[in-house]
């Protein structure tokens, strides 16, 4: 018996194999008719596998939407309410399947940390539960936190994925594919400026910036940056950075990372992040982790990403804690460990990090590393949603729609789906369409 049955057109075999292999590494057993036992009829084997599967994944492409056997297999999944369509090409779904939520893997490169793949994993888990090959989840609460996304801190942490984590400019979403910056909280001090780590534990994590260049204080560079005058801020930061100022080095890294006032250059961004990170700047440590996580400016290396996320997290950086939790949840760069994932998610969530809160909610919903509790899941989803997190809003809407941890309430479900959909969450948009609503 296989957990997942993949239906596809023969021409799409490479994509089917790629997906099957990555899903198997998550711990699921996957059948995709790669081999039929000798002496058995093809149709009989297919029928048996379809009837035994917990989830039927159908890959929609320009060819598969016209293949009768793919449509037949999809129909079986639809009747059993275990169908998850997945777009591998930009096509319209076949007649009768337009209202069914579908994952989008168009352009997916096979990365298990890609947000679109993470969303597919979540969809599968909601039907089939956690992979049987995953570590057992003891019925004990952990104490950490994070989500499917990531971001950077001021001087500026860059974040990606939500739950690997979910990044809009100047906001954090754990482990998104795009790297965007978020300004760290800056505290102006007489005669200079301190950039505070998000942990609010200023006694240990604040780094004084005292550089003055050509009569202009470093604080003036920050003001110019905040005003969007990047061309004017850059030379101030650069001179301070060349004098060894860790905060300025991090700012320069962010500017190269995003093309603010300079031509975008990931190699230069990595160089300046590293200079700052090696001086202990938690924002730069987090950003450097993201570079390794996403293979920007350096070869992708999850072990190095974990190393720098941990350094940032150990200083109390909530985004670093959230991303470290995600690495533990997915087993990227270290051994998969749900209890450790929960521990770091909780640390992040308790600091108010919306990604950490949503990811912690997810762990409670599925009993990963904690005793399963829909009520606790709703609690953390709500905290995330009320901060405007699109993933948290979607998750909370889902709980209301199906009455998990709360009384079933279609109006509340629509409300939260709509808030999420307006931020571009395609899952929420599809659910609203299915419910006959707009956003």
Question: Can you tell me about this structure?
Answer:
By secondary structure, the protein is α/β, with parallel strands linked by helices. The protein folds into two domains: 4-128, Rossmann fold, CATH 3.40.50.10140; 152-372, Tetratricopeptide repeat domain (Serine Threonine Protein Phosphatase 5, Tetratricopeptide repeat). The chain is 49% helix and 10% strand. It is built from 18 helices and 13 strands. The chain has helices at 13-25, 42-52, 68-79, 115-128, 202-205, 218-226, 230-242, 246-258, 266-277, 282-294, 302-314, 318-330, 338-350, 354-366, 374-386, 390-402, 410-421, 426-434; strands at 4-7, 30-31, 55-60, 83-87, 103-104, 152-153, 156-159, 180-182, 185-189, 192-196, 207-209, 212-213, 216-217. The strands form four sheets. Strands 2-1-3-4-5 form a five-stranded parallel beta sheet. A hairpin with a 2-residue loop joins strand 9 and strand 10. The longest helix has 14 residues, at 115-128. The protein is globular. It starts with a strand and ends in a 5-residue tail after the last helix.
Main attributes of the structure:
439 residues; alpha/beta; Rossmann fold; Serine Threonine Protein Phosphatase 5, Tetratricopeptide repeat; 2 domains; five-stranded parallel beta sheet; three-stranded antiparallel beta sheet; 18 helices; 49% helix; 10% strand
């Amino acid at each position: 018996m296989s957990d997942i049955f993949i239906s596809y057109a023969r021409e799409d075999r490479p994509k089917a194999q790629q997906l099957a292999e990555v899903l198997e590494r998550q711990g699921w057993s996957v059948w995709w008719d790669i081999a039929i036992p000798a002496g058995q009829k093809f149709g009989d084997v297919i029928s048996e596998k379809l009837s035994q599967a917990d989830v039927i994944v159908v890959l929609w492409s320009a060819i598969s939407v016209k293949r009768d056997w793919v449509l037949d297999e999809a129909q079986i999944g639809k009747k059993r309410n275990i169908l998850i369509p997945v777009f591998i090409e930009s096509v319209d779904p076949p007649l009768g399947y337009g209202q069914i939520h579908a994952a989008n893997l168009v352009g997916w490169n096979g990365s298990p940390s890609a947000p679109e793949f993470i969303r597919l994993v979540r969809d599968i888990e909601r039907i089939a539960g956690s992979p049987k090959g995953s570590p057992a989840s003891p019925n004990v609460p952990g104490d950490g936190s994070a989500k499917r996304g990531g971001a950077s801190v001021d001087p500026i942490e860059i974040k990606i994925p939500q739950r690997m984590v979910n990044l809009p400019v100047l906001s954090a979403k754990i482990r998104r594919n795009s790297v965007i910056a978020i300004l760290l909280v800056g505290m102006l001090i007489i005669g200079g400026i301190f950039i505070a780590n998000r942990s609010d534990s200023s006694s240990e994590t604040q780094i004084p910036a005292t550089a003055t260049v050509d009569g202009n204080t470093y604080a003036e560079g920050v003001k110019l940056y905040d005003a969007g005058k990047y061309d004017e801020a850059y030379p101030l930061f650069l001179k301070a950075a060349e004098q060894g100022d860790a905060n300025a080095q991090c700012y320069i890294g962010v500017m190269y990372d995003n093309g603010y006032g300079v031509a975008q250059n990931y190699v230069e961004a990595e160089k300046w992040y590293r200079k700052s990170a090696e001086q202990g700047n938690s924002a730069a440590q987090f950003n450097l982790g993201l570079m390794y996580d996403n293979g920007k400016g350096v070869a992708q290396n999850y072990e190095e990403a974990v190393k720098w996320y941990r350094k940032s997290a150990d200083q109390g950086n909530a985004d670093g804690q959230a991303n470290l939790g995600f690495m533990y949840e997915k087993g990227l760069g270290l051994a998969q460990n749900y209890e450790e994932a929960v521990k770091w998610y909780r640390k992040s969530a308790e600091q108010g990090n919306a990604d950490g809160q949503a990811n912690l909610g997810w762990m409670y919903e599925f009993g990963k590393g904690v005793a399963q509790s829909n009520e606790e899941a709703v609690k953390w989803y709500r905290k995330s949603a009320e901060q405007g997190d699109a993933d948290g809003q979607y998750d909370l809407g889902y709980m209301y729609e199906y009455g998990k941890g709360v009384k079933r309430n279609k109006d509340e479900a629509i409300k939260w789906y709509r808030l999420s959909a307006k931020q571009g969450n395609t899952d929420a948009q599809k659910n609203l369409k299915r419910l006959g609503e707009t956003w």
